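A.,

Following up on our hallway conversation. Structure tokens first:
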């Protein structure tokens, strides 16, 4: 699952360079009142193009969820579980879902467990119809790495393509980070950001 952020981009590069297993990369355009979907989409398109030009081939797909008319912002990790289930079923032989979660993310152990439970419940519905693989494992390839190490391990031009802001500003025809959200503040620990 590729969001366009630094963590999922580092995960993608790790999977492309440390394995030769077939890889399907999927991006979810999540429209909500934070209005970050356009910025994330632009980042994902640039990251996918950059990686395709430099690494081994991979399959890319995307889907969208539109919550713009809702006051509440949906819980991203549950939306990811829903879409990951659909992608796993749509990918013959899929036995793993990779997520760019980090150990230092807020409440990550509980969030990841809830995400896997939601996925497992949905996946069981498909398995009852004899679809999919007997099991799908969730893997976290960059889990133990701090954000600054992730950035240091990537080419600077690729880091520059990533997007982290949760509440972007739109001015002069382009997206600008707000500089105040939790993701922007985390990004300040990275040299060159």
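Then the amino acids I'd put at each of the 193 positions:
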């Amino acid at each position: 699952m590729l969001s366009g952020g630094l963590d999922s981009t580092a995960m993608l590069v790790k999977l492309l360079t440390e394995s030769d297993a077939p890889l399907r990369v999927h991006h979810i355009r999540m429209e909500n009142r934070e209005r970050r979907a356009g910025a994330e989409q632009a980042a994902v398109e640039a990251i996918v193009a950059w990686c395709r030009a430099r690494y081994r081939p991979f399959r890319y797909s995307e889907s969208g969820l539109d919550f713009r008319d809702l006051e509440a912002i949906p819980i991203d990790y549950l939306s990811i579980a829903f879409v990951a289930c659909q992608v796993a079923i749509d990918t013959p032989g899929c036995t793993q879902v990779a997520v760019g979660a980090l150990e230092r993310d807020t409440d990550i152990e509980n969030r990841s467990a809830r995400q896997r439970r939601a996925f497992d419940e949905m996946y069981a519905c498909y398995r009852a119809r004899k679809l999919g693989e007997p099991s799908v494992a969730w893997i976290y390839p960059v889990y133990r790495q701090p954000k600054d190490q992730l950035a240091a391990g990537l080419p600077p031009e690729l880091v520059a393509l990533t997007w982290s802001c949760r509440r972007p500003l739109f001015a002069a025809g382009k997206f600008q980070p707000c500089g105040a959200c939790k993701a922007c503040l985390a990004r300040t620990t990275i040299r060159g950001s």
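Residues 6-187 form one domain. Curious whether your intuition agrees with the design.

B.
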